[in-house]
């Protein structure tokens, strides 16, 4: 017991020293220019100290344990992995925001994005129509948020409007416990305990209700999110945003791991926000798409909208173009591996946002409802609103 206590004491002291030294890691040059040309380079460089610190703590813990080689190897390895994982998280938080960027996928003009009736009722508006998280490819492929929003300015001729995309990326909060294992942490940074009083392992997080979990942001120290300054046009814009996730080999967390992403689009004193809960998945769980919550809109800087609240588009900004003929399932995409995400009752009024195929009978369309729901249904399930 004395040996184990000494090992834990030494591990904590050494890990603390590594973390203090590591805090000097940087992402920018003194001139303000980026220190690296990519997220991968930034993360690998900052993780160098994590690897040295983790391996060093593991080896020295083995030496302190001494005689029992089996026990020494197991605890020493665990100490190194836990320390490296925690410092790897710090490297991730330092680099992710600096090297993230959104790329436009499609842009529809006002005339293309809105029916004539909506243009006649024109008023300045901003609405995040869709937020979807795509977790595809291999374990080393990062999740990709796809989002679409519709923006109208007071001046119909206005172009090149300055806007902001505010990204908040969160991962379930975890820590290394007294046994040097990764366990869930509560809001105070203490180990979260189960009914028997034992720490809950990180791998159990995916099976727990989201409201029980605590979260930590993937952003630089003292910040909750990171901001992109962009230029947008009027109409409907669609973007992809590549989330920067460390390679699996460099941050071997037990998968799946719960995460959360909140996007806020800001333009002309207006904000529109949505949140999507998702998970980092192993290969067997991919591909998978997660739908975001209904958007929440605010005006004149009333603060970031609360995630998960309900919106209504019955204020004139939503004008239905079609109605649902009969009860129909709403799908996450129009491909052969689509998944039903909701059900629409007969008579539900919708507007068409995008068409996937031009030829019948395989024609699919992406629709929005006045409650903020977005998804794909067969075009044959719709009838035009007169």
TrEMBL record:
InterPro entries: GW_dom
Classification via Pfam families: GW
Alphabetic keyword roster: Membrane, Transmembrane, Transmembrane helix
Domain of life: Bacteria
Membrane-crossing residue ranges in chain numbering: 47-65, 72-92
Residue ranges of domain GW in the record: 328-382
Designated name of the protein: GW domain-containing protein
């Amino acid at each position: 017991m004395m040996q184990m206590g000494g090992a834990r004491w030494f591990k904590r002291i050494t890990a603390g020293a590594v973390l203090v030294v590591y805090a000097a890691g940087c992402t920018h040059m003194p001139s303000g220019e980026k220190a690296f040309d990519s997220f991968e380079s930034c993360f690998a460089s900052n993780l160098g100290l994590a690897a040295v610190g983790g391996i060093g703590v593991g080896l020295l813990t083995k030496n302190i344990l001494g005689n029992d080689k089996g026990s020494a190897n197991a605890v020493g390895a665990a100490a190194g992995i836990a320390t490296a994982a925690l410092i790897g998280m710090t490297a991730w938080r330092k680099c992710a925001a600096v090297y993230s960027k959104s790329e436009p996928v499609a842009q529809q003009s006002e005339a293309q994005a809105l029916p004539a009736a909506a243009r006649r009722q024109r008023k300045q508006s901003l609405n995040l129509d869709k937020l979807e998280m795509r977790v595809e490819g291999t374990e080393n492929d990062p999740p990709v948020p796809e989002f679409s929003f519709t923006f109208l300015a007071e001046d119909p001729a206005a172009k090149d409007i300055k806007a902001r995309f505010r990204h908040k990326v969160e991962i379930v909060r975890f820590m290394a416990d007294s046994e040097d294992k990764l366990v869930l942490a509560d809001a105070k940074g203490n180990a979260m305990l189960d009914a028997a009083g034992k720490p809950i392992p990180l791998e159990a997080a995916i099976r727990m209700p989201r409201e029980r979990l605590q979260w930590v942001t993937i952003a630089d120290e003292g910040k909750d999110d990171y901001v992109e300054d962009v230029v947008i046009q009027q109409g409907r814009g669609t973007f992809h945003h590549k989330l920067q996730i460390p390679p699996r080999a460099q941050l071997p967390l037990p998968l799946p791991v719960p995460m959360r992403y909140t996007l806020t689009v800001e333009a002309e004193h207006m904000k529109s926000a949505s949140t999507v809960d998702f998970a980092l998945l192993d290969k067997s769980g991919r591909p998978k798409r997660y739908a975001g919550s209904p958007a929440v809109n605010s005006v004149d800087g009333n603060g970031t909208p609360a995630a998960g609240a309900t919106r209504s588009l019955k204020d004139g900004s939503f004008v239905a173009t079609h109605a649902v003929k009969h009860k129909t399932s709403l799908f996450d995409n129009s491909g052969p591996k689509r998944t039903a995400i909701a059900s629409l009752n007969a008579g539900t009024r919708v507007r068409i946002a995008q068409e996937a195929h031009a030829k019948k009978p395989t024609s699919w369309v992406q629709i929005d409802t006045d409650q903020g729901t977005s998804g794909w249904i067969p075009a044959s399930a719709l009838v035009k609103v007169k």
